[in-house]
Amino acid sequence: MNFWIIQGLNGLAFGSLLFILASGFSLIFGLMRIVNLSHGAYFMLGAYVGLSAIEAGVNFWIAILIGGGAICILGAVIERFILRRLTGQPLAQVLVTLGIAFIIADTCVWIWTGDPRPVPMPSALTGAFRISHLAFPIYRLFVIGVAFALAAALWFLLERSRLGAMIRAGVDDLPMARAMGIRTSLLFSVVFCLGSALAGAGGVLAGPILSVYPGLDTDMLPLALVVVILGGVGSLLGAFVGSLIIGFIYSYGQALFPDLAYVILFLPMVLVLTLRPTGLFGRQAI
Amino acid sequence: MMRSRILLSTTILAAWALAAPVQAAEPLKVGFMTVRSGALAAGGRQMEEGLKMCMDEHKGEMAGRKIEIITADTAGQPAVTKTKAQELVERDGAQVLIGPLAAFEALAIDDYIRQTKTPIISPSAAAEDLTQRKPNPWFVRAVGTSAQAHHPLGEYAAKELHYKKIAIIADDFAFGHEIAAGFQRTFEQNGGKVVQKLWSPLNSAEYGTYITQIDPSVDAVFAAFAGGNGIKFLGEYKNYGMQKPILGAMTTVDEGILKRMGDESLGVISSGWYSAAIDTPANKKFVAAVRKAYSADPGYYTVGAYMACQFLNNALVQVKGDISDKAAFMKALRNVNIPESPYGPVKLDKYGQPILDIYIRKVEKKDGRLQNTVIKTYPQVSQFWTYGADEFLKSPVYSRDWAPAK
After folding, report:
1. What span, in angstroms and rounded, lies between the C-alpha atoms of A67 and A44?
2. Whose CA is closest to A100, among A191, A37, A158, A151?
3. What is the tens place of the pLDDT at every residue in B348-402?
């Protein structure tokens, strides 16, 4: 029984990290149809920036904002000056984002060297939370809380705000939205900034658990892709449910079928793509 | 008649006198394969630093010959390693190679080395069979094999720490398999029992799922990780309320990553063929020099590359700088015998593998920084431990399923 509870919590925690990463990816993919292969690199760069801020004496929470903010600016610049020139050429956009990912990765090694760096956990959140003889890290419980809060905030943004309505309109039918007078170019910049900021802030938040190292980007990106494909493009609910499913599969799978670690993660994605290409909650096919 | 003879002899003497310095003045080209990008970049950089320390010590010359180092970045990918090895040997004229970093890279160029008969000194790749069941006559290692450094720890854990039941968690690749098997063999031979073996992928994002699977009834956990995985594992271990002591592999708490760890690493006992805390004049001098140049303690990669370079020097001195007879040079390389070095005395066995002092170390804080204090030394340990070479080689190479957990 303990096994199921603890691994379930592990799954929930990992899924929460994935949601923070994948929500940004899903937003960008859903609205702008851009497969942002730099997303993993944004996550990593955000973590490095946050780490440097913390080492410069900044408080952990501010460091998260700084990490998110830096990547938001980077993302907005890349979108405005590079990706926008390639509108209508999805393959070129994908390749450009891949190239940018490599550039970011090498720049990170250049600036922060290749040593793996743990991000210091805020001292209030270290240690284990105990109930009878079960123990679980407090920080991971905190991350779960953040993911749920983020999901609620994004839901509120998308369903109850004007900006959200514009985003949903763009996801559903972009030319129509433009025809209705929505300033799609501004919307794109805002959404790309938001999605990138989520990746960057997510990197800092995940730092105490995953640490930052060259290769973090390529470790996380495939997971974000799987989540979005599984959950459905452009759907926040899909990203949320997809993250949790992948999180649980990751935890229970590693524990029950350790030899099949990677198969376990990617098999659901393959099944979904074959049987239901729009994903669980998506509305358009990839 | 006499005059033409004198003229002839003088001419010959003059020609010989002119020719000899030209030959000695030609630099010896050494190809150095390291990693500058990707997950292994940290180790690669430490290797470059170790090599530079050695080259600076010799002022760029060995046995009177200038040494030219040509560096190549293999990116830690076997296909690239193969290409770079070819470039170094065929395009750049490298006569000796130092490198590569990873065992799977070394395996990728094994055939090429045999074909081209290029002497190669490995500063890092620890794969056992390279000096055991599939020995390459042109290969010499400057560091321990995977299990060589960990056989003693198994005995130490059983005999001196009196652990009876241990769970092993290791990186799921050859290095991790070999270390785990070596440890298990000596631990169980001395009365212990490995009751659980967990394999985590080399690029595991985090260790929560594994930590929570560890059998709570064990006396200790042997955690064998490479790269930066030790940081992640140790960082999370206590947060899950785990209190059992941890034994580490050499690379779990290597000096290269120890500097990034905190109090969670205190008390971890590990074994290895080096520690920056080794208290000999040779090592103190070396550590002081590395600290001055790079503000960090030397670890596995720094020392590995440094010693590979020292092996080169030792062999070159034996052949007086003349590397044209490759077989003689290889013989000299295999004949390397250095009584004093940062990691202690070293000589090679007939497979090209060093016989090294293995140190049992404990992480402690001294002067505000973490170090691997040496608490026991097993002198002159061979890659075969106390089993004779023939007996050892009869069984297959250490692997993932080497011995099931009981």
Report:
1. 10
2. A37
3. 999 999 999 999 999 999 999 999 999 999 999 999 999 989 989 988 889 888 8
Measured in angstroms, the CA of A7 and the nearest CA of chain B are apart by: 6
**Residue of B40, B210, B260 lying closest to A117 (CB–CB):** B260
| Dist CA B241 CA B226 (whole Å) | 24
Give the minimum alpha-carbon distance from A238 to chain B in angstroms, rounded to a whole number: 23
Cβ-defined contact of A211 to B232 (cutoff 8 Å): yes
Q: How many domains does chain A have?
A: 1
Give the domain range for residue B314. 28-146+281-356
Residue B365, C-beta contacts closer than 8 angstroms, at least 6 positions apart: B266, B371
Predicted TM-score (pTM) of this structure: 0.87
Q: Could you count the other beta carbons within 10 Å of the beta carbon of residue A266?
A: 16
Q: What is the CATH number for B140?
A: 3.40.50.2300
ipTM of the complex: 0.82
Cis omega before residue B100 (within 30°)?
A: yes
Task: Identify each DSSP E strand in B37-122 by its residue range.
Answer: 61-62, 65-73, 96-98, 120-122
Please check whether residue B50 is in contact with residue B305, taking contact to mean a CB–CB distance below 8 angstroms.
yes
Is residue A96 domain-resident?
Answer: yes
The H or E element spanning position B377 is: strand B369-381
